[in-house]
Every structure is written in structure tokens, then in C-alpha cells.
Write a structure and sequence with these properties.
337 residues; alpha+beta; Phosphorylase Kinase, domain 1; Aminoglycoside 3'-phosphotransferase, Chain: A, domain 2; 2 domains; six-stranded antiparallel sheet; three-stranded mixed sheet; 12 helices; globular
Length: 337
């Protein structure tokens, strides 16, 4: 008989803790290090404190079955490329004792891919500090443009990377990477009808928009606030775990993750565009499609919340779906113009 009092989230975290403690022994200089869980979402991320040297690191333990080893290695190759050819500050991988950037810990017949990264100082932007957030979004727009310029300029070298594709099919199609929004929380028949109409409009508009090389390439694809570190007037980008091939404007949509319904979003978009245009131009057609990418991301997040069990999804719950109604209604009106 199973124990109904056992919290599956706690059980999962404890399993990742075991794997993380095994992983640090694959780095000889961390033999006396201590770990502390920073975040449990798609992966488990730990602060690693090396008490001998006083240096900190970040250890990421990947969720089994989410990425292959070659996909993780491709992510790390792009990180090194960004570090070598841009001014963007990123966290870099550190090889284990066998010389590999990706260490493998086998647990219950599953391989867990573990990566140790350099530690970056800073804290995530505060979504409740509107004025400061608007200023930070101008910096973020400029940084995102740098990422996209790097992607465009190195297209030939990057196309061979084994990474995810983030387009309509993989986000909202029949078998999306993060699950179906139809299986999200609080999906009533009325809400399903509204969201289906939104999804149809998104597909129609993106089919017309196309995947030209000036608007589609290798992107970060998860630039939400939790994946940004602010230190004084500098913004650093972390967690390239979901980087893949998608529309460049999708990166703007991801930076608005979980706050799409906030009243200050229009100001954030304007600030982002101001920063972005310092390095890259956007056509009127591209700007008109920004609401499409925001709605696509919002529906993707409904699917994510419904298919994941972590502190973030528990906190957001069905309220996130309910708050999407007004956004969906406005988008349908906008898309039909």
C-alpha cells in the first residue's frame, strides 16, 4: 500500500540531491564541497561551495529523458562561442576529472547528465519594481540583439548543433515538448474553445510570417526573469538549457513569461525594443507579430504548469490559466484585424 502522505515533489528533490552529491565527486577539487539546492524546475540546480578554496560553482543535474548528451554538449558549445565572440557574460562549463564537460551519473537505470558551471554574481530582476524593471528591459533588449547577431553571423557553424526546435508544432502542435495546453489546469469547455481559436490564429499568422534567416535561428528561448542576473548596471544571462532554433522574437515573449497580464508589459516591450534597435532593426511586420509570440508563449506556459510539479507551478496553479482569458480575448480581436 502506498503512503498517500508522501509528497512526490519532496521525493523527487531528494533523488536529485543524491545524484548531485554523487556528481561532485567527479570533480576532484570539490571533494570537500557542500551543495545547496537553488532551483528545481526542468532540472535541479545547486550552489556548490568549495570551502577549501572559498570559490562557488553551480551544478546542474538534468532531468532524465529531456535532453540527450549530445544536445547538452551542443548547448555548451554555443555558450563557449558566445563567450569567445561577444561581450555577453555567461556561465561557462567546467570539465570533470575525465575531461568531459558533461558528467554522467547512473541512477535507477537512468543516466543523469550533470554539468558544473562557473558562478556568476547577481540577482534576478524584481517583477514588483516596475520602474527598475523597465530600465532593465532596455538593457535586456540590447543583450538579446547581441545574441541574435551572434546567431546570424555564425549561422553556418551553428546549424549542425543538436538542439531543440521551437516552432508552432513543438510548442502548440499535437505533441508539444512541454505538453498540451488542453491538459492544463482549469481548462473548461468555454476556455478550451477560446484558446483553440487563439491557437488557430497563431498558426495562421506564423505560417504567413515564415522562417526567413533574418527572423529565425538559434535562440536562448527562455529569457524569463529567473534566468537573468542583475549586478549593478549589468545583466547576465544564465540557463541555456532550452536554447534551440526558433523565431528571434520568441526571445522577447519568453522574457515576459508569467507576467504577460501585468499592466506594465507594454512599457517593458517599448523599453526592450529601444535596446534591441541599438543593434538590430525590426520591420513593421515583425513588430506587429509581437502579440502572437506572447500568446504562443502564454499557452505553452499553461501546458508547462499542467505537466510539471515544482514550487513555481504549485504557486501559479489554475489562477494563471484564468488570468489568460482577457489576454486571449484581446488577441483574437487583434489577430482578426
Amino acid at each position: 500500500m502506498s503512503d498517500s502522505s508522501v509528497d512526490p515533489l519532496k521525493e523527487s528533490v531528494e533523488k536529485f540531491n543524491q545524484i548531485a552529491n554523487s556528481a561532485i565527486h567527479l570533480y576532484p577539487f570539490l571533494s570537500q564541497a557542500k551543495i545547496q539546492l537553488l532551483n528545481y524546475s526542468e532540472n535541479a540546480t545547486y550552489l556548490v561551495d568549495n570551502s577549501v578554496t572559498g570559490k562557488n560553482y553551480v551544478l546542474r543535474v538534468g532531468r532524465p529523458g529531456y535532453h540527450s548528451k549530445s544536445e547538452v554538449e551542443s548547448e555548451l558549445a554555443w555558450l563557449r562561442s558566445i563567450d569567445a565572440h561577444s561581450s555577453i557574460t555567461v556561465s561557462l562549463p567546467i570539465a570533470g576529472s575525465n575531461g568531459d564537460d558533461v558528467q554522467v551519473v547512473d541512477h535507477e537505470q537512468n543516466p543523469y547528465y550533470c554539468t558544473l558551471f562557473t558562478f556568476l554574481e547577481g540577482s534576478a530582476p524584481d517583477e514588483d519594481n516596475e520602474n527598475e524593471l523597465i530600465k532593465q528591459f532596455e538593457f535586456l533588449g540590447e543583450i538579446t540583439a547581441q545574441l541574435h547577431e551572434h546567431s546570424v553571423n555564425n549561422r553556418k557553424n551553428l546549424t549542425h548543433l543538436s538542439r531543440l526546435t521551437w516552432d508552432y508544432e513543438t510548442i502548440l502542435g499535437p505533441n508539444p515538448k512541454w505538453g498540451r495546453w488542453q491538459d492544463g489546469l482549469a481548462i473548461t469547455p468555454e476556455r478550451a474553445k477560446l484558446f483553440s481559436k487563439v491557437s488557430e490564429k497563431i498558426k495562421e499568422r506564423l505560417d504567413r510570417f515564415g522562417k526567413g534567416p533574418d527572423r529565425y535561428g538559434l535562440i536562448h528561448s527562455d529569457l524569463r526573469l529567473a534566468n537573468l542576473l542583475v549586478e549593478r548596471d549589468q545583466i547576465k544571462v544564465i540557463d541555456f538549457d532550452d536554447c534551440g532554433f526558433g523565431w528571434y522574437l520568441y526571445d522577447l515573449a519568453t522574457s515576459l513569461s508569467f507576467i504577460e497580464h501585468k499592466s506594465y508589459v507594454h512599457a517593458l516591450i517599448d523599453a526592450w525594443l529601444t535596446g534591441y534597435r541599438k543593434l538590430r532593426s525590426l520591420t513593421e511586420e515583425e513588430e506587429l507579430e509581437i502579440p502572437t509570440f506572447i500568446m504562443m508563449r502564454r499557452l505553452q506556459l499553461i501546458a508547462w504548469i499542467g505537466s510539471r510539479d515544482n514550487e513555481t507551478t504549485r504557486e501559479l496553479g489554475s489562477g494563471f490559466t484564468v488570468d489568460t482569458d482577457s489576454l486571449a480575448e484581446k488577441y483574437v480581436q487583434y489577430a482578426e484585424i
